[in-house]
Amino acid sequence: MTYARAMHGLAGTIAAAMAIYHMWAIALSPPEAVIFRGTHLLFAMSLVFIMFPLRKGQDGERRAPGPEDWLLCALSIWAVGRLFVEYDWLVNRIPYIDDPRPADIIGGWLLTVLILEATRRVIGLALPITASVFLVWSYFFTDVGALAILDQLYLTTDGIFGSTLGVSAGFVVIFVLFGSFMERSGVGKLFMDFALALTGRSSGGPGKVAVVSSSLFGSVSGSAVANVMVTGQVTIPLMKRSGFRPQFAAGVEAVASTGGQIMPPIMGAAAFVMAEFLGVSYLQVVTWALIPALLYYVATFAAVHFEAKRAGLAGLPDHEVPRLGDVMRESWHLFLPILVIIIGLFGGYSAPLVALVATLSCFPAAALRANSRHHVTLGGVWDAMLDGARNSLGIAMACACAGIVIGLIALTGLGITFTQLVVNVANNNLIFALILTMMAGIILGMGMPTTPAYIVMVSLLVPALIAMGVVVPAAHLFAFYFAILSAITPPVALAVFAAAGLAKTDMWSSGWAAMKIGAAGFIVPFIFVFQPALLLIGTWSEVIFAVASATAGCLLLAASLHAYLLRPMPMWERVALFIAALALIKPGLLTDGIGIVFGGGVLLLQLIQRRRPAVI
After folding, report:
1. Which of 289, 305, 480, 593 is least surrounded, with the fewest CB atoms within 10 Å of its CB?
2. Rounded to two decimals, what is the model's pTM?
């Protein structure tokens, strides 16, 4: 056996052990915070240093780990493991009163540097640089001393071992495992067949298939890029073959895949962090997020429909589209794990326990019918555990690194200072403050995953929005949305980059197509800030009125941007519909009246012209 194969086997064994440990901890109640979070961090750092070695081969591929990687792995085990050995001392000392000992100082700074390096290896430079800037600023430009920084980050649960790492350990890993078990048990094909049967025959069917399948799969995977790479390999060629422009096909897949992170019942990892920050159940976050997510997908679906109609595109032929009845009859059992999630959350059970039960039900569900039974193998279960552990590494390291930033912000009082600064710069103008927050979210999201981008915004910007009167859930969801939407916002736009590669087209043209398709996603967060009824906060009459108005506005916006409603539109009709869309989206009787007049006028004109007989 070669060294490389042996290292691959070792990494697989550690990944499987990580998956089993987290399932065991959730089933039997997690250990005390530092032990549970520290063990989670040790698993993650060990895997990162083994699976992402420092040196690369001549072809650019990473090689098997070298001596330097094993050294970093050993130092990580010592820096965290010593806290386990001296746990009694750790919990009995008084933070900031009892001075850290020499070994604590060495271990603390060593672990901080190791986390920065491990994070760099798995998600890139942006977040480690951000954390390093905060470290330098805290040490050199504040009155906080080095020992206080060390105490906060290493010896308390307000820094590295804080709530963000706790969310990664207690929530994220099990939901990532659930996604891996779902994929390995054949659910990916079910989602595709279900979407094909539902929309494949309609005008622009392949584009609608991409929207439906990506929303289903993305709500399980929680990663925009992963979603693109799984569903896009099928949907993008289908869209191109049916006549969609390659850049439009890439844009549709990128927008639909990105929306998976805001789509209940599972959403992205940052949603679990939000629940922790707000001190509410995960079900409450899902409830708040439901209507905005549906608006996002209604607008995306409408954009595909109007573009297909304008271009005169038909659906897929009957022989390529399965019948919905056949799909449900043959594969209904694969929906059972998702039903477990939904029923468990509404039944009041904790999200991690529900996810664990759903994860353990994936392969038994697949075993119920012969057409999916071939997925049920020991190798399939093993691969699902490996995939889940590996896919959680980026989030685990991002949460640990974000813990450094949060700990320093709390220690130095920067959050309060920054809140006052934003309020003063915005001059108490909420629109300006929201635009600043939107720009910050997009910029942060370009360089780091959604979770740490959202965490930084919560620490620095969200308090300013709340201070200016924004409802707390709306302020958090606003930051959450724009941390996600960076995936379709040039110049970085990682989801667009992945989709453009599959479509074999230009990234920039795909990026602009994605922004036009996903335009409603940039407007919906502003709506629910001014109209919390969209978050189901308010009376039922307010909710129904707000949802109806916003839905109409999103549909008209898609029609305006894609130059088609009931027929192709000249520019003046597009402008009128654009005004109507914005007026309907903005809450208020006056603006809704303006929207109805402009939108209704264009619709009536098009109906008259459609019914008018052609002149021979």
Report:
1. 593
2. 0.82
